Every structure is written in C-alpha cells, then in structure tokens.
Amino acid sequence: MSGRYLVSLDLENKRCLIVGGGSVAQRKAVTLLECGALVHLVSPEVTPLIEELARQGKISHRRGCYESSDLEGMFLVIGASGREDVNRQVADDCLSRNLIVNIVDDPNKGNFFVPATVRRGALEIAVSTGGKSPLLARKIREELEKTYGEQYGEFLDMLGVFRQETIANISEPEKKKRMLESFVDEKILSLLKEGHLDLVKEMLVSAYRGSGR
C-alpha cells in the first residue's frame, strides 16, 4: 500500500453521517460536534447520550436501519454499526459515490483512517499507523499527552496574535523571519515544556516589543 496523505478536514457546517448507535458511534458523534459538523445518525437503537443529543437538537437521528438514501447530501460518513454486513454495505455505497468513509472496526474497507489525536486548543498532533496497530497509535498518543500539556493551547493562541501583528507591521523579510523565530526559540520552548507559562508570556511580550516596529 502507498503512503497515506494526512490532512486536517474543516467540518464546520458539513453534513456528516454516522451509521450506528452504540458507544463508538456516541464517541464519534461527540468528536464531530466538537469540530462543528452537522451530525446525522441512523440506527434502530442508540445510547442514552445520543438520544439526549437528538432531543436537544444537537444531532439528527433517524431511528431505523441504514439505507443508501441516508447518504444523500453527506460530506463524510462513519460506519459504526457493529455489524459487518451493514458496515460493508456502507463502505461500498460510499466508495461508489466518492464519499469520504471510515469503517471503525475495519478501516481498510473505507478510504481514510482516524488518527489518534492530542488536542491542546488549536494545536493538534495526530498519530497514525495506517490502520496496522491502533493500539500502538494510542500508546504513542498517551506519551504525547504527557509531553504536551494544556499550556500549549494557550501559548499557541498568544503566538498566533503576535505572528499576525509581526507579519502586518514588519515589512523587511529578514527582520520578520528573525522575529518569528524568536517567538519559538529553545529557551521559550523549554520553559513552556516545564509549565512556566507566565515566564513564557513575558518573554513573548518582550520579544514582540523589541521588534522595533
């Protein structure tokens, strides 16, 4: 198999279908909602949380068995029915329509894998084994979670502001490059890793103010 082309999809207001109503489908629904997707779910039975999300109008749920017509207007599809025959049909129908589809218990049937992901605000670190060992991907993710704490999300938000200001206000290319590099120098990253966010903020402000704007 050729190497995979990893991408980060923008699912804001995109219609996404989940086939299944168990705990795995529930987890996928919550994740898709966090990404701003318009979540549609089809299953004869669902977990209490899925039922509550549907009652609140956060997702739409059609109670019944999967039909190919459920794919109408969908951008992305996840097969999590727990039934091999149903998931195979979902995969076949999606692939024939060039839809993006993942089958949770057999990723090779679809056309994308869901990587193990560490999220710290806007920072996302994805680990993929190409479907060969989701357990190894999870283990690596757990190690990354220890290394990259919650402080990285706040740091990145602040860094983004300074980056935009620097790009907007400094026209000389070399000076701009030096400024952007100073925001992520070894000392700052070392302090950040140790959890000294207040010191990191002071250093960022100092570096930005020293830009000579």
TrEMBL record:
Which residue ranges does the record assign to the Siroheme synthase central domain?
Answer: 120-146
Reaction(s) catalysed by this chain, per the record, are: precorrin-2 + NAD(+) = sirohydrochlorin + NADH + 2 H(+)
Q: Pathway of this protein?
A: Porphyrin-containing compound metabolism; siroheme biosynthesis; sirohydrochlorin from precorrin-2: step 1/1
According to its UniProt record, the EC number is 1.3.1.76
Gene Ontology MF, one: ferrochelatase activity
Give the UniProt keywords, A-Z.
Answer: NAD, Oxidoreductase, Porphyrin biosynthesis
One Pfam family from the UniProt entry?
A: Sirohm_synth_M
Which Gene3D superfamilies does the UniProt entry name for this protein? Answer: NAD(P)-binding Rossmann-like Domain, SirC, precorrin-2 dehydrogenase, C-terminal helical domain-like
Q: What's the top EC group for this one?
A: oxidoreductase
What is the protein name for this chain? precorrin-2 dehydrogenase
Name the gene that codes for it.
cysG
